[in-house]
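Running this now, will post back.
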Amino acid sequence: MSSSVFIIRIQDKQSETAWKVHAEYRGDSTGEKNDIFEFSAEDFRHLNTLSTKDYGIYLGKALFQNDLREFFKSAFHSSQKLMKVTLSIDVEDSSNSDNLRALHWERLCVPMDQSWQYLPLEQRLPFSHHVSTANLDRKYSPIQKDNLKALVLVASPENLETEYNLASFDIEVTVAGIRSAFGDIPCDILANHIEDAIGLPTLKKLIECLTNTNPPYTILHIVSHGSIDQRGNTWLYWSNQANQVEPILGGDLIEKLCIVQNLPHLIFLCSCSSANYCGGLAQGLIQTLATPTVVAMTDSVTIKTATELAHNFYPRLLKSGEVDVALQQAAAPLAERHDITIPALFSSRLDNQFLFLSPSVKEIVDNSPNSKNLNIDHSQKSRDKREFEYDAYISYVDEEPDSTWVWNILVPKLEDAGLKIAVSGDTDIAGVAKVVNIERGLKLSRRTLVVLSALYLANTMGEFENVMIQTISIQEGTARLVIIEKDAVDLPNLPYRLQQLTAVKLNHPHRAEREFQKLIQQLKQPLPYRTSDGVYEI
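Update: finished.
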């Protein structure tokens, strides 16, 4: 995690008017502090009489008292760059607890520079609401720019005003603005009266697209009216086949999404009250579906603010790769808007890392001096006349069951065949950054063996290792990366850069031993190199 993180958890109830606060700082140094958040019935009533900024200051002063205030300021001053701030409300259900959750935490102000500043607009303190998920079975693998693909649903049905007293908006202008925000990111549109839309903005079509599109969408962007009923349920106002309003209950949307195998990593809800603090849709998406990140609206927001925020947001997301950083940068130019504190980030992750920003294979090739003709220099050095310290470097996830398989089966078989093997960590130098040690291990080894499994696909460091070795391979014009299938992996679940490689199937029910012997023989040979006509030779 590149930035430091300040974690605030409001939890155990201490009395009718007090809750425990646990704060933790993770950075170059670490620390934690416990305090009490006291808020009486009178405090709850008083908040409703205050302006938005005064509301945030009042809430901030109640939270950052005494030791916690000093702990926060000390943590910020010790941070080298940014200090990310996450807030979670982990309290048991009760009437008072519901009141606590229902507070407008998106308005929270923090003590900064001898004054109180809106936390959601303070770019030095990227802010998110942390939401826990009970769904540990659904995994979201790290993604790169090459994986980005958006599905955009824009709904403004004909009878919004007459039947629901909701103002319609210009669909064509809205779609054009979103497309401009996405730039080079491919996006498909669900909307009425858009010439190249792939369908109507209906719940059925949304589920169909998310289910059947391959490669899957990594971003879902929704623009529609929304509201909260008296029970705290979220409603979205989409269209039916006749372009009339089809109210969608948030719980029904989540239930339908449960059947989709590959859900988007980021959902952006440009819909009023889509993140109400008592059972909001945004929180439900994370709690039930383990959606990594959801940007949503905590109250009523104008279509103008939501659209301009999105327009600012996506280019910044591509640059930083971090949702919280991009969102607060996007909000900064709109700071004078009365509703700019309403958009909020809800996340199951503390770092809010969305994109893995190592150069993609396509970027490396496109930016190569020889990209026009791929006329790579194949000198004697490129033809593998070099000496390597190891025959292979094994990239795997050091968790069960992968660890046992690597150490009890793979490594012994390779070493028994006379091969010199480096396993992750063997080449590390104490005191050197982990990523530098990884690069060193990769370069000291003729080839890198990726032990492909479900664990590996969900591991960020594994992603880093295989992207780095492919970067080196393309720059050299060699074939260094070898994929080993330990477990059966569905091809659509693999990143494109791995789908294109011929794998060694050590999990094959009949050919496993033959595949092992074939792998050993190939590891003893020089590296294949790319000729000028695109053929690989040894």
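The two ends are 40 Å apart (CA to CA). More later if anyone needs it.
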